Amino acid sequence: MADSTHSTAQSQTSKILGDSIAYGMMFALALTVIQRIVGFGRGLLFCRLMPEEQLGQWSLVYSFVLMLAPLAMLGLPGSFCRYVEHYRQSGHLGSFLVQISKVCFGAAIIFSGLMFLWPEPLGRLLFRGADTLVVQSMSLAILSTVVFFYLTSLLESLCQVRLVSLMRFMMAISFAIFSLTLVVIWKNGVVAVTIGYTASNLLGALPGIWFVVIHRRQMFYNTVEQDRSVDAAQGAMSIWRKVVPFAAWLWLANFVTNVYEVADRSMLLHFSHGTDHEAQALVGQYHSGRVLPLVLVGIAVVIGGFFMPYMTRKWENQQQDVAREQLRWATKLVGLGFTIAAFVMLLLAPLMFDTILGGRYADGYSVLPITLVYCIWYSILIVVVDYLWVLEKGKLAVAIVTIGLIVNVAVNYFTIPVYGLMGAVFATALSNLVALVLVLLFNQKLGLPVDRHIWLVVAVPLVLLMPLLYAAISLLLIAVAAIRFHWLIDDCEKQKVIAFLETFFQKLRRKSAAH
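Now predict its structure.
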């Protein structure tokens, strides 16, 4: 009887599984590219419409929201990517989701409520002085981010790639519309943008809410049956014993990662010379230099988020070699593809900074090349660290990011007072490289082949530090060497790429003919 119930649960929940990795990724990347183009345009308009100090405040608000939202929900939705497939196959997905949801949303409501009621101390700590309205609007943004992140994490774990891509696309479009409208009609730009961000999160969450409502029986299937056959408290303790260690390490990793991501700007705000207004303006300059590079990081976040559930499924089905091969491919595509995209960005940068922004952000322009390099390294890091999480080696991931954070803070402490903005960017670049190298070394020790091809991919972005003509020649030579001398891919990998493309276009032709 138990076997019958288990197979029925698997049959029911299998209906909610989504796309294959190839089609899901290609659809996600297509929408993500459009979304990032919209985000880039939105970022440019923020730079043009907002004073430098308010732009700097918004840069910090956004980073703190992304740092505090996982903290507020105790990092629990991060466990979906690793354990939804496990509990789906065991027939206990419903009990798992019920337990996680109660604690996640309860903690988030309490956290945001406390921020809203006592905003003054937080404003002094985070912003070197900010009015209460900024912190209160940030507390609402955190709550909306919790809702959006919970749904996207759940749907990603079910491989609903197209639906999650649609949600993020809706969020990006509505954020541009809401925030820019409010900035134009409201003098307080940072609060206007934060409120626009909150509303866009809620709008983007609607397709996910619709999916959960439509498929609630399949997703929460067997909850009642399990509670009748097994002591409910015992079942809940079993779930928490398995999930808590993973979620705790992931929560700590997210917290350290987000502190790591905001450390350079926070230290630039507190350690640079000048008044509060001048320090916030310098952060605004840095923000302008990150508008283009963060397009790449955003795409990498999507790739890393979608990739882990696929790797987990392969791992659960005893296809570890396939998972390793897919991760190596993703690493190469991110490193090489993002370097080419960054070179195009450097070609277009004069149009952006000199023409569109009217030369207001010369400091941001000066640090653009090295910012692009460290964002490419960070993007590769986002992808390759998935391997540690699939192996449930969260302690290593946390340790590596912590080392990167220590390097970042230590170097910033000495370079910002002397070199200002360039010192902060150099410290971040160095810390990203240290963290990436450590992750690759640990991955290799744990069974993921890291050969000279991967190390060359890590080194390639350095060509962006050359003058544009030399960078173009270097990229051309690298492309020739990669194809002719197997520097980056070998004959077997080439054949697999050709076979995949042939199969993909054949399926497209069949679908077109069917329509």
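The chain has two domains: 1-261, 292-464.
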